[in-house]
Design a protein that fits this description.
The chain is an alpha+beta fold. The chain has 25 helices and 20 strands.
């Protein structure tokens, strides 16, 4: 902005979201000791406003309220105003989101929470229209000055509620997990299956990959065809819907309707990472070529739009362009007719394009009719149809590239990058494209070179060659998970060794011996009003569930029974929650299945270990933990090397079969039960 009228303290921040508000007339502060102390010195309520760069309604509230001088004056005179990027500071977001959910029964972004100078929340909500916002500001400022004791009482009650949300009791009685536990969870999940559109009933519809990974695993062990049928339907409907960008690849965050048609148009790195892994796994189950296409197109989007030259992945694409939600993605039929000429009729029929449109007078590309039906209607072969669609997609994509693109949030976050690195590794394992492995390796090298210190202190964020925020548990957990995956795909022990070192660091700075769980924040960070534990799996798996799964795998790789025991204890602590509300504990359910169906440790030792590993990955074996190499040093590989031979050991429950010389023989020793 040339010669802005206003500039506030956000101007020195690196977060794109904070910088979007740097020229508001509101005297915004970043979360800082300066802002908190000013609140205490002036005895003013804190106004903590939280959002993220790709958030449509965050933009709306800014344009309606935060650039309004009269509203800004009320905010500046009566509150100390703090802006928070929830993606950079999820620790702050967790606390105040919990508060608003306790106050209102719901949450979302923008999140606007009022707090006492010590940070304890007293009131809050999400998006407000300007008149509502003005009224709330004036009412709270008057009430706080007249009746501060009421605010103190509210703060105590809300803070007590926040602490109870995260209250975990260590289960002392050891009980085993069994098939009946799994069946009970599956029956609960089934009740919410949408058998027409996939996913769960109702709207909005989120992809929620975390809930489908355990379903694939459960299907592998149970052979329950209804489960894989539901999974396949869900992935098919998502890929056909408007939530999937049919021209440029990549998925939007969620659909506002139950048919996956109208997306909330922002594209998040973490969603696309998990969906790549999910579609890759699903392809291994049924070799659906559409699932392969989805993976390739999604990774094409990521490489084209979100991959930095340094090897890091940017965070997101905005929902808006030119101030309008979805403008970049939608079409009118006349525009398509002009671009495609005689191909337009077939294209429009296939992608549900009409003159009246399917959303606000415009068209979101989506698929409602099969290729076979379209080909028959126009008396052409499916190959001819494919040719028309490929050419047409290319023409429209190139035209769309001339439009003003949605805003890019170009900050790089450790946890989300690790998720995408893992996605590339998963895609490499299935589709054997060496480029995917190279990108994953480069990304891990980027993280370890730029965000990890010699004493294993990890940073969360990176932009313009700077990192400013200490990592949280999810950053460590997802990086450890990616390193474990990378080791199993390359047999390079530097990755497993780093995963082990980081795990020891996490125990030192995050572990709560009293509960056997991990805090979200390190003991090296300044204290907030509550030190939470992240338990529930949402659009991103909870950091505790990821750590439990990591410990389970590392315990087997390093023959460390204490890690396996801690993972089991963590699962026992949340067993009741998993069984009562499995929709919010998908990754815990994933671990529970592994407790019932014990994993195989597969050791491939010798010069041809990598080649045999590649052959093994052609078979879907979700309960396999794989180690190997020419001369591996992992405890699991001790005394297994024989000069001049490549052998495979299949072990389970510390009992190994005799070594075999081929993948076919090894597979013969493995049962999915």
């Amino acid at each position: 902005m040339a010669n802005p009228t206003y500039t506030n303290k956000l101007i020195t921040e690196s977060s794109p979201y904070l910088l979007q508000h740097a020229n508001n007339p509101v005297n915004w502060y970043p979360w800082s000791e300066e802002a908190l102390q000013k609140s205490k010195d002036e005895n003013k309520l804190l106004l903590i406003s939280i959002g993220y760069s790709a958030c449509h309604w965050c933009h709306v509230m800014e344009k309606e309220s935060f650039v309004d001088q009269s509203i800004a004056e009320i905010m500046n005179n009566n509150f100390i105003c703090i802006k928070v990027d929830r993606e950079e500071r999820p620790d702050i977001d967790h606390i105040y989101m919990n508060a608003v959910q306790l106050i209102t029964g719901s949450g979302g972004w923008p999140l606007n929470c009022f707090a006492l100078p010590d940070g304890r929340p007293v009131y809050g909500g999400t998006y407000y229209k300007p008149d509502q916002w003005k009224q709330i500001l004036e009412s709270l400022s008057i009430s706080y000055n007249k009746e501060p004791e009421k605010f103190e009482k509210a703060a105590n009650e809300i803070n007590s509620g926040i602490r109870s949300i995260n209250h975990i009791v260590k289960v002392k009685e050891k009980t085993s997990f069994n098939y009946e536990d799994l069946l009970e969870i599956i029956l609960k999940l089934r009740k919410n299956f949408d058998h027409t559109n996939g996913g769960t009933w109702g709207a909005p519809k989120f992809p929620l990959p975390v809930n489908y990974f355990p379903l694939i695993r459960y299907y592998y062990h149970s052979g329950d065809k209804d489960i894989i049928k539901h999974l396949s339907l869900t992935l098919k409907r998502m890929s056909e819907g408007g939530i999937n960008d049919h021209l440029g690849g990549g998925f939007a965050r969620y659909s506002v309707d139950r048919e996956w048609l109208v997306p909330h148009f922002e594209k998040m790195l973490y969603d696309n990472a998990q969906l790549v892994s999910l579609y890759s796994d699903a392809y291994r189950v049924n070799n659906n070529q559409n699932f392969k296409r989805v993976v390739l197109e999604t990774l094409g989007f990521v490489e084209r739009e979100l991959l930095s030259l340094e090897g890091g992945f940017y965070s997101s694409f905005d929902a808006d362009s030119e101030g309008v939600e979805g403008k970049f993605y939608v079409w009118n039929k006349y525009e398509i007719d002009a671009l495609l000429d005689e191909k337009s009729m077939v294209f429009c029929d296939y992608y549900d394009v009409s003159e009246e449109g399917n959303w606000d007078g415009t068209n979101i590309l989506n698929i409602k009719t099969s290729k076979e039906e379209i080909a028959e209607k126009y008396k052409i072969s499916t190959d001819e149809l494919d040719s028309i669609l490929i050419d047409s997609n290319k023409t429209l994509f190139e035209h769309r590239e001339k439009r003003v693109k949605p805003g890019l949030d170009d900050k790089i976050l450790t946890s989300w990058n690790a998720l995408m690195a893992k996605a590339y590794i998963n895609a490499y394992n299935v589709f054997k494209n060496p480029r995917y492995l190279a990108i994953a390796k480069k990304n891990i090298d980027f993280i370890t070179s730029n965000l990890l210190s010699a004493d294993l202190q990890l940073k969360r964020n990176y932009k313009n060659q700077k990192s400013s925020i200490n990592a949280f548990l999810d950053d460590y957990a997802f990086l450890i998970e990616a390193l474990i995956e990378l080791y199993q795909s390359t047999f390079e022990e530097k990755y497993s060794e780093l995963a082990l070192k980081l795990t020891k660091h996490v125990f030192k700075h995050f572990f709560d011996k009293k509960t056997g769980m991990f805090f979200y924040t390190s003991d090296q960070d300044p204290e907030l009003v509550a030190r939470i534990k992240e338990i529930n799996d949402h659009v991103i798996p909870a950091s505790n569930s990821i750590m439990a799964n990591n410990l389970f795998v590392l315990g087997h790789l390093y023959v460390n029974s204490s890690y396996i025991d801690i993972a089991e204890q963590m699962l026992l602590n949340v067993k009741d929650q998993v069984k009562s509300n499995p929709a919010y504990h998908g990754n815990w359910f994933n671990l529970m299945i592994q407790q019932v169906h014990k994993p195989y440790e597969i050791c491939i030792v010798g010069e041809n270990a990598l080649e045999m590993r590649s052959q093994l990955y052609e078979k879907f074996i979700p309960n396999a933990i794989i180690a190997g190499g020419a001369k591996g040093k992992l405890p699991l590989l001790e005394n297994r090397y024989t000069e001049g031979k490549t052998t495979i050991y299949v072990c389970q429950n510390n009992v190994c079969d005799k070594p075999v010389k081929s993948v076919a023989e090894a597979l013969g020793l493995i049962s999915n039960q």
